[in-house]
């Protein structure tokens, strides 16, 4: 039952109870008044009988009293009338011609106690009132009766028919009830019309507040009240108008800020706004954290932490993809071996739909969307989210869930993850740019190989990593034979062509993990990672042979050149990388001395006359 019905019911019950109480009070009062009137009449008649009998006795006409009594008895409503003599009077004058002895216990009680007695006999048809009044001795009576003053000489008993009093009371009660009902109806109507406006206002307010709690601020209260109720309705309308405009404004601004909503539109907008603010704060803290990260790896670690927090118990992997070369590098993964087992610097051979379309791929969109997961168990579900960080680099987040239901939960975090990546993009772009700038400063502008600055900055790091991982390096020191003659004969432009030629030969002869450095002029250094002596000599011979077979077409002629090389092995030939480089230089000098276009392996006996320490 709603409040309106409760109040209406309470009001109706109150008015009905009040009416019933009034009618009951009137009925009781009327009945008491009728009985009191009947008693008063009985007393008057009794006194009249007493006084009449006294007159008859004084005048000596007692034998005529029967006529008098009969006349009194024929009065309206008197059903019976009799006179009772006390025993003292009976002893003095006899029982009288009408046998005036006590007829019942009431008569006897009145004669004995001298107090008036009344009795009401009532049934469904009639109401009888019995009144018995004592006849006490006065000063005048002492002369005639053998009695003292205030002795009871007799009593007068009467029975009145007061049925008409009952019917009059009933009629009066009916009249009062009808009037009360009319008044009740009038009061109810007037009260209802007056209070209903407030009850309707209360219901509208209750409904509006309920919808407002659910985030719906569209309800507006309509009322014709001009008092505090109307003021309250206006205040609520103004509040909801302000809330609606504010929430819509926040939603639009946040959508612009985040590049789209991060939460379902069906949710309470206040709760949604609170969640969005929480997301913004978290993203802000995330961005402030990664802004001071030293390199890309630290940024990737923080991104992986965010992904892990938002995907629950699903597996995920974070990849860096170089778009130009289609090379993909696994950055982090929840598994020691990812489902399709990519390795560092893997070149994608299968087409990646996510990379091609630039949009997320979900396994429940269609079967076999991603060729990398063709062999995965059919019960699993996966998602592939690409995010372009720069024109050359894309981050790829892959998630594998135990089923579609678990993947749906991850989908709910899709926009949030995108917003984190968006906030990370400028930071990663800076790191990418710094990496490019640093790489540019560390590379020779003519050949694209690393320069002497790179060697100075990174050779110690390479040496420490090699020592820690127990990896050997082959060190090749190379020098063009008679290069000064090319510059002197053909000019520096042709000399640059030859320099580029040897650089291309070196680059084509080594692996991507190896390091090639232009050490200055026509001198080059190559560090072959994790190689054997035989492997290092094989690469050096390949470079020498390939370059010797290279023909440079110049105006009016064809030019061929050769290169000499010295080979040393770190750490077997030297305890430090710089010393190993010096050993390779010693071997190179030996190759130069031995006629050039040669590869010479370093041996300790070559140290004679050389300061390599």
Structure summarized in a few sentences:
With 613 residues, the protein is of the alpha+beta class. Among the domains are: 41-162, 2-Layer Sandwich (Beta-Lactamase); 307-412; 446-607, Alpha-Beta Plaits (2-Layer Sandwich).
Would you mind describing this structure in some detail?
With 613 residues, the protein is α+β, with helices and mostly antiparallel strands. Among the domains are: 122 residues, Beta-Lactamase; 106 residues; 162 residues, Reverse transcriptase/Diguanylate cyclase domain (Alpha-Beta Plaits), CATH 3.30.70.270. Helix content is 52%, strand content 18%. The protein is built from 16 helices and 17 strands. The chain has a six-stranded antiparallel beta sheet. Strands 12-13-11-16-17 form a five-stranded mixed beta sheet, with helices on both faces. β2 and β3 form a beta hairpin. The model has no long low-confidence stretch (mean pLDDT 82).
Task: Look at the structure and name the CATH superfamily of the domain at 446-607.
Answer: Reverse transcriptase/Diguanylate cyclase domain
- Rg (C-alpha, Å): 62 Å
How can the largest sheet be summarized? 6 strands, antiparallel
Structural class, from helix and strand content?
alpha+beta
CATH top level assignment of the domain at 446-607 = Alpha Beta
What would the CATH topology of the domain at 446-607 be? Alpha-Beta Plaits
- Quaternary structure of the protein: single chain
As residue ranges, the low-confidence spans are: none
Total helices: the number is 16
What is the strand content?
Answer: 15-25%
Between the first and last Cα atoms, what is the distance in angstroms? 101 Å
How many β strands by DSSP?
A: 17
Q: What's the architecture of the domain at 446-607, going by CATH?
A: 2-Layer Sandwich
Can you give the helix content as a percent range?
40-55%
Mean pLDDT: 82
Label the overall shape: rod-shaped
Instruction: Give the neighbour order of strands across the main sheet.
Output: 7-6-5-10-9-8
